[in-house]
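Progress against Task 2.4 (sequence-to-structure conversion) is shown through the following example record, which the project officer requested during the mid-term review.
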Amino acid sequence: MEQKNFASVRKIVGYARFSDDRGLAALGAVYSRYDNLLNYFYPCQKLLEKERVGSRVRKVYDKPRTPFDRIVSDGEVPGELRDKLVAKKAAVNLVAEMEAMQKAIDKLPSLADPVPEFVPKRGLKPLLFGSYGLIF
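Structure tokens generated for the chain above:
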């Protein structure tokens, strides 16, 4: 999976914490499906160059392509690896992957750790900007 934390992982899973084995297995089910979708079907753009012109930054991107398309079109990839990837993509059913991922996502909220409730200690009061200090 390409490393795009907010663009992919946080939008799908959210910010919940999963610490037990059932939660980790559910995350694994989501990620395995999402890897196939992201790498084979979701195109993204790569930054080719970035140039500062005064106070502005001019960025040049390539055409949107999937990571699969990028690696298949690369001339340095061995032929047997390319053939293996093409066969793997042919075996992936887009609709079935999306349905399985949605079912796995629907299980996540029930397996997440409870959010701890903040209880201020005696003698503390809220100050400006949400910080806490001692009362004198």
